[in-house]
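Structure request: Caspase-14, Galeopterus variegatus.
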Amino acid sequence: MTSPRPLEKEAYDMSGARLALTLCVTKAREGSEADLDALEYMFQQLRFESTMKRDPTAQQFQEELEKFQQAIDRREDPVSCAFVVLMAHGEEGLLKGEDEQMVKLENLFELLNNRNCRALRAKPKVYIVQACRGEQKDPGQTVGGDEIMTITQDSPQTIPTYTDTLHIYSTVEGYIAYRHDQEGSCFIQTLVDVFTKKKGPILQLLTEVTRRMAEAELVQEGKARKVNPEIQSTLRKQLYLQ
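Returned structure:
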């Protein structure tokens, strides 16, 4: 028995073009190629038009996102959603380009918001960030034994600038993100496995990614470590990729 098709008002229309841009610094980031291979497979499976750029400088991170935004706005066919994958060394709020210079994530995020990218206005924009957000390391913890206010309008004519965006970070604020020298990062590999094999709204899939990563045992320098992604969402509807 198949599940009922989500109502239009409850789910994003995914009948148009699906676009993806991946910017990845591979320099001094062993295992990055495994992540790129996994992402390429995922985007093929999910019917995305995918572009990948290796070893961007800090300025090129900005320039490539600007080109991506401009190309989206120039398209004559409808666009359903956009994915942007950013992989590099980093700190909280910053990514390090191949030239060791820093670029602000905030500047990259704003390029596709509802003000700056008309073709993606009210469309889902998903950012996947595989990068450290600090130096802290989580050894893990032993587990022992809203009221929502709504405001309705008959026919809203405007939309907030920052809706319809999903930020998926490989780790929580202040903490390290882990990457295996040959197998790639736990985060990207887990995300690709879930997104290509499971069906359901994207936030449900991300809960599965978080569960798997929380259960994973990572060892760094002989010590057990824990890591989990952080999801920040302003999506207004369900987003189905399958």
